[in-house]
């Protein structure tokens, strides 16, 4: 019974940290949103807490496992569906992003990152990626667009200072 509670609490903590800090598992880019900090956190939470509640109510271990697995899978699929719909609803810009300057707000790799672009229409951060890993706070320029994501490279001054 304690194991279910611990798994549920770890899942809740992962869910909160992923929401506040950013996707911890985004670098893996697996499963089109199925394996992300939010979905794994929700899965662990929806596995552990119902399992704990079933066992504390006098239910069998098999019922607790079945309820946990079904609810965890449903939660992970729901997060994946929401993530895919949000990604599909974010339309690419109607203006050219190539050449825009910005600053990385999260570490940026070949698969994951985030950038704040300097443009009046760019009020939110954008998902970004780069050829070489870049830490947060680096001045960058957009070199390519891929849907709503942008590929960035460090500006010339950043390259000279390294």
Automatic annotation (TrEMBL):
Keyword Membrane (UniProt): yes
Keywords: Membrane, Transmembrane, Transmembrane helix
Membrane-crossing segments per the record: 6-27, 34-55, 61-79
Protein known as: NfeD-like C-terminal domain-containing protein
